[in-house]
Amino acid sequence: MQHAVGAPLPPNRPGNVPPSGSGTVWDHRAQSPGPPPPPQGAPAPGWSGPVVQGVVAPAGDATGHVPLPPGGPVPVPVPPADAGTGAAMLAVLLIGPAGAGKTTVARHWAGHRRVPTAHISLDDVREWVCSGFADPQTGWNDQSEAQYRLARRTCGFAARNFLANGISCILDDAVFPDRPVVGLGGWKRHVGPGLLPVVLLPGLEVVLERNAERSGNRRLSDEEVASIHGRMAGWYGSGLPIIDNSTCDVETTSRILDDVLARALASPPAW
Question: How many domains does the chain contain in total?
């Protein structure tokens, strides 16, 4: 079981993949009666743009007028002709321990690409739960584990949603190398086979220093940080690209990340 920045180590036991949703779709028309919908293919009231005949987005599985692709929608991207990732459509998973700088680097990289790119933070999505938030620091239990699974599925759906609409994305999560089926395997199921994982792994002293600057439920004890960092070292020898940003600022790390991703496009890692 991998965990996000700011959470303690989950118990090292097999995780259970929750069953898929019931597929129930809430029909707002049953709650707020209004005029009947326009005929199929007819423009909506006030629409002045072109109408694409014969293209109907499936109910409950579309964003705007762009249908979402089926499961595993992210193809292996095509390498750009120029340096860096260029205008390539990308889905990136940035992995690392608490204090590695994943969120900061991911946001900077996404904000400086030449093409539309979204940053999806697992921690941010997990903390959408306000009342009833299950903080693992108060004790790892079924509810906290379920909320992590729910957050990852939500992030995966968001990534597919952005990609279906022509927007690249980068997700960040702390994925443990000793839990590949639940970790990397889960993200591949959620997003697709074209997902590019990269590990951000600075030295332990750097991670401890950055963690000390945190507050709230995202700050861990030194013992937890050391344990997480030790397990993350298992990524060495995995074949995944690893960036040691111990002596790099955010801008430099972001540039290195782009170069690493460009090489991964040309020769995707086996995972």
Answer: 1
Q: Which residue pairs, CB below 8 angstroms and at least 24 apart, start in 56-64?
A: 59/25, 60/23, 60/25, 63/161, 63/164, 63/165, 64/165
| Integer Cα distance of 194 and 175 in angstroms | 17
- Flag whether 98 is in a domain: yes
pLDDT beyond 80 at 241? yes
pLDDT (average), residues 230-240: 87
Q: Given this model, what pLDDT does residue 142 score? A: 83
Distance CA 68, CA 202 (A): 37
Rounded to whole angstroms, the Cα distance separating 19 from 262 reads: 36
**CA–CA distance from 261 to each of 131, 197, 244, 264, 266 (Å)?**
39, 9, 15, 5, 9
133 pLDDT tier (thresholds 50, 70, 90): confident
The string of pLDDT tens digits covering residues 80-106 is: 545 678 888 999 999 998 888 899 999
The enclosing domain of 179 has a CATH number of 3.40.50.300
Does a structural domain hold residue 163? yes
Prediction pTM value: 0.66
